[in-house]
């Protein structure tokens, strides 16, 4: 009987979302999307949709753009993209340029490995035009990146990626308690995400694998375990909704938008507000990966 009630409540929740008068699947606002990724023909990297950074002569520091380049090439095709380095500092900056593979763990943290070391790496296909550059004060440096996809069907069976790093040294003067000054050289690096997503890969899907109540004596928490079961990277939003069974009052808890690689699993944790009135609640967890992806939801009943 309890299972039938849960299924009925979950069905009503999803039906209400689908009939939202706004026409959206979720009332949760989406975070801004990088517009440099839109309006690009198949076979061209999305970063080419943007231009070199606008005149920012009043700024101070270094600007490296874009943060992401998504090639969309078929087998046998070659692509070229550009990274722009703008030096607003009063001195020349030197950069070492190199590739590194990386994956996201279940919390979203990055783990780095040598280039070509993971199965989904495209580092072997990327050609760096230079591995060392100098950028003068006030200069905008246009750095070319080339990628050659092998002419084989295996090369376009899955999405691949790698990271392009620009590393420089920042000198910092530190004054000790005795008044002596010491020069410390700190290495600073900026990573550009390089993605290769074949145009034939269009299937998008996400699944909830588990929805658990992780409350303890100090905090009431729950978590969603989800997985990207499609073939392309997803940008996901997630939230929980608590409905007081007696009063019908609803409370929503959101988390920031997060990306999911194909096959990647992600643990999304939520803290249940402490100020909720005591009683029985319907707890619904949602993963929303966009308007073209079926929304995933899970539900359970909890006592607060």
TrEMBL record:
Residues 1-18 form the signal peptide. It comes from Chitinophaga flava. This is DUF916 domain-containing protein. Keywords: Signal. It comes from the Bacteria.
């Amino acid at each position: 009987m309890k299972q039938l009630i849960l299924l009925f409540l979950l069905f009503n929740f999803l039906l209400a979302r689908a009939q939202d008068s706004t026409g959206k699947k979720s009332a949760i606002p989406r975070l801004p999307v990088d517009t440099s990724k839109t309006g690009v023909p198949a076979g061209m990297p999305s970063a080419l949709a943007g231009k070199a950074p606008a005149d920012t002569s009043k700024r101070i520091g270094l600007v490296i753009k874009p943060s992401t380049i998504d090639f969309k090439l078929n087998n046998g095709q070659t692509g070229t993209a550009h990274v722009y380095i703008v030096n607003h500092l009063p001195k020349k900056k030197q950069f070492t340029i190199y590739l590194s593979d990386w994956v996201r763990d279940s919390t979203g943290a990055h783990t780095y490995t040598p280039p070509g070391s993971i199965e989904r790496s495209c580092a072997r296909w990327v050609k760096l035009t230079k591995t060392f550059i100098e950028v003068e004060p006030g200069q905008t440096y246009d750095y070319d990146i080339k990628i050659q996809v092998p002419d084989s069907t295996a090369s376009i069976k899955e999405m691949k990626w790698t990271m392009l790093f620009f590393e420089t040294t920042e000198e910092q003067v530190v004054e000790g308690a005795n008044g002596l000054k010491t020069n410390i050289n700190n290495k600073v690096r900026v990573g550009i995400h390089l993605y290769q997503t074949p145009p034939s890969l269009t299937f998008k899907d996400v699944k909830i694998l588990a929805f658990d109540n992780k409350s303890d004596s100090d905090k009431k928490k729950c978590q969603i375990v989800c997985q990207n079961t499609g073939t392309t990277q997803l940008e996901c939003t997630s939230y929980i909704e608590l409905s007081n069974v007696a009063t019908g009052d609803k409370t929503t808890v959101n988390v920031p938008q997060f990306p999911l690689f194909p096959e990647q699993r992600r643990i999304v944790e939520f803290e249940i507000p402490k100020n909720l009135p005591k009683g029985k609640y319907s707890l619904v967890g949602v993963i929303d990966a966009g308007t073209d992806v079926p929304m995933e939801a899970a539900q359970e009943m909890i006592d607060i």
